Amino acid sequence: MDYGILLMQQILNGLHIGSIYALIALGYTMVYGIVKLINFAHGDIMMVGAYIAFMMITAFNLPLPIAIIISMASCALIGMGIEKVAYKPLRNAPRMWALITAIGVSFFLETLFTILFGASSKPFPTLSLAPIQIGALQISQIMMISIGLSVFLMIALELFIKETKLGKAMRAASEDAKAAALMGISVNKTISIAFAIGSALGAIGGILFAMAYPQIKPLMGVMPGLKAFIAAVLGGIGILPGAMLGGFLLGIIESITKGFLSAFWPDASLWADAILFLILILVLLLKPAGILGKNVREKV
Amino acid sequence: MKTRKLLAIALVAMMGTLSFVGCQKADASSDTIKIGGSFDLTGEAAQYGIATSNGVKLAIDEYNANGGVLGKQIEFILEDNKASQVDATNAFKKLVDNNKVIGFIGSDISSTTETIANLAAEKNIPMITPTGTKLGITTIGPNIFRACYVDPAQGELLAKFATEDLKAQTAAIMINSEQDYSTGIAEAFEAAFTAEGGTVVEKVNYGKNDVDFKPILANIKNANADVVVIPDYYETIATLITQAREIGITSTCIGGDGWDGVTEKTVNNPEVVEGSYFVNHYTVEDDAVIVQDFISNYKATYDAEPNAFAALGYDAAKILIEAIKTCESTEADAITAAMQNTSLDCVTGHITFDENRNPVKSVSVIEIKEGQNTLYKKLDAVK
């Protein structure tokens, strides 16, 4: 067996799942950056996105790109709605309250979709395109679409935050919401937009996930949601490039332990999650703010 | 103030007596035969729980329509385990302590079933699980039965089928190491396959929450075995096998009864499961009258095709009720003894019980052909 090829193949696999983690992680990190809330319902937004796309494709026979756009738009609205109903009234309450509310929203979405669609999984229409063979490497087309789309969206988001007025407002609000409000920035609007963008990216993540692992079910968002949260923390929560880096890193570590290390150590795939969390703990011990995070000293 | 307090005490006392009266009434009115059941009607195992409990309900409704048993109607009380051992415990205690059931049918997955079996053995309530396949469940007590065959039996049958019918010499096994079901079949397969002269060339493990299998599939591809054994449930299989074909694995895939339902999950890409085989409890193609009657009645009641879970639920209820009928008693030991002597034609085959209260019956080998489960052959039970 050629270990070099195996390693390359696993890195590619890792980039694929990593790109999905990264997209979801962006939603966590954007929301955390502005309202300092870990939105545990975000993984479920991803599930909602996949279900909306599923309905558009199967019930209305829409082509995939249009289904993606409708799903993104609806998830953006749903994300904003959740923020208005569940989180906004608690903005000045202790942070723990909002966190618990987020878990509540997560349960609400999971049970709502179980009631609406049933607990069993539904086959998601996927593109069954032949993989591209480059040397001994196999690259599936879904993998390429997934990586390409997520890198494009990340660059677009980064430009939006850096270059546009709205992006500037977002950065200002995340630095100091009160001061930003004094400067005439509508903090409420900015927060809504952060939720909208985060949820829309989550929806795309969900659809890409459903295309790669072609089944959807109401609890499908739980594990990827958790992994994406870890990715966001690993890269430095609140920092956009950190979320992307964390996502890709997580995917690659996972893939290499499961598929490459296991060639030498058969039980490696069972240890994959343990190894992943060990790396997370090590990173957080050395850099508590995450890989790209800056240590900000609390002013006393 | 004082009068208020007195009034309150009086009210409480009255409520107490009232509820006591209620209890007494319920106890006195034993004009029905109460059978309890608890299944995972919500939560991650809901698709099993719902199908199995539908099968049970269908059997009980049929008995009731024909005049019930021992001249009484059967009252079936159904609780939800929510795929949680805590909820399963509460459900069983409620059924036994409050509802005073005389027999119990449930649960669907091995973990909740095992929890309940421990309680049922303690309380000596005759119990039959339709689908709890884990080996140790029925040895918990002499009153615990099951309608399905056990995991190791499936593994042995698969090994026999792979060597004799598929002429396989090498096998790769993919094990969901977080599922007793999967490890049970895998271990039995490996032992039996090696005994038949085959070689297991690769074994890989994965977790129950995994969805990205491409990393571990790379090793399976390199092993290039004649058969790939995937003993898991259909949702995981649909995801796993899609990725396996995507990276170019062409080996024949085989598995256990958890495969039932996989064709529904791969309607968009049926080619990935084409030509795979699995062993199952029954097949809708069986033209025995009892099977066809069950299928048409189930369809009429639930507007859905009955899967193996529904069939096993139906059989489990039938075994328990027939035992009550035979022993003409609602007393636990008498029912248990009658169940042990079961010899009954059921939807999933003719059932008798061995000394560990596991059923001895034939299995169907199913081949997936043109996206449909088709009967390949029937295999007799390994004794």
TrEMBL record, chain A:
Membrane-topology descriptor? Multi-pass membrane protein
The cellular component terms of Gene Ontology attached to this UniProt record, alphabetical and capped at eight, are: plasma membrane
Entries under InterPro entries matching the protein: ABC_transp_permease (IPR001851), BCAA_transport_permease (IPR052157)
- GO molecular function: any one? L-phenylalanine transmembrane transporter activity
Q: Which residues cross the membrane?
A: 15-35, 42-60, 97-119, 139-161, 193-216, 228-252, 264-286
Q: Where in the cell is it found?
A: Cell membrane
What are the protein's UniProt keywords? Amino-acid transport, Cell inner membrane, Cell membrane, Membrane, Transmembrane, Transmembrane helix, Transport
Tell whether Translocase is among the UniProt keywords. no
Cite a single GO BP annotation.
D-alanine transmembrane transport
Q: Which family does it belong to?
A: Belongs to the binding-protein-dependent transport system permease family. LivHM subfamily.
**Protein name from the UniProt record:** Branched-chain amino acid ABC transporter permease
Automatic annotation (TrEMBL), chain B:
Where does the source fall among the domains of life? Bacteria
Can the keyword Transport be found in this entry's annotation? yes
InterPro entries found in the cross-reference section: BCAA_transport (IPR051010), Leu-bd (IPR028081), Leu_Ile_Val-bd (IPR000709), Peripla_BP_I (IPR028082)
> Which of UniProt's keywords are assigned here?
Amino-acid transport, Signal, Transport
The signal sequence is 1-21
Provide an example Pfam family for this protein: Peripla_BP_6
Domain Leucine-binding protein, by residue range, is 32-371
Q: Which family does it belong to?
A: Belongs to the leucine-binding protein family.
This protein is called: ABC transporter substrate-binding protein
Annotated source species: Zhenhengia yiwuensis
Q: What is the lineage of its organism?
A: Bacteria, Bacillati, Bacillota, Clostridia, Lachnospirales
